[in-house]
Design a protein that fits this description.
With 99 residues, this protein is mainly alpha-helical.
Length: 99
């Protein structure tokens, strides 16, 4: 998915890119507030069936719009979906002595 990140509208490469985007906004209203957040245990709380369905829909949409890489070979959409499903359904997390 690394080559597809740039196709996600909310993707920000790094903190420098974020600062550049914020600067491009110009002056914010005096009452504007910026905030940050940190996700905890996000992956373990994802509904995996829903995630697979959403990502599959997104990849198929990109394929239908001819936005997926095709050079030097055509992007293997079905293989990527199958691999994603295999990984999401069969991975095991370890945190300390908890699995």
């Amino acid at each position: 998915f690394q080559k597809l990140k740039h196709l996600i509208p909310s993707y920000i490469k790094d903190s420098s890119a974020l600062i550049q985007q914020l600067h491009s906004l110009g002056n914010l209203p005096p009452n504007a507030r910026l905030g940050t957040g940190d996700a905890i245990s996000m992956y373990t709380n994802i509904d995996t069936d829903h995630a697979i369905a959403v990502i599959t829909t997104w990849l198929c949409h990109l394929a239908n719009q001819h936005l997926l890489p095709s050079n030097p070979i055509k992007f293997p959409t079905n293989a990527v979906i199958a691999a994603m499903t295999l990984v999401i359904k069969n991975n095991i997390f370890e945190f300390g002595d908890l699995y």
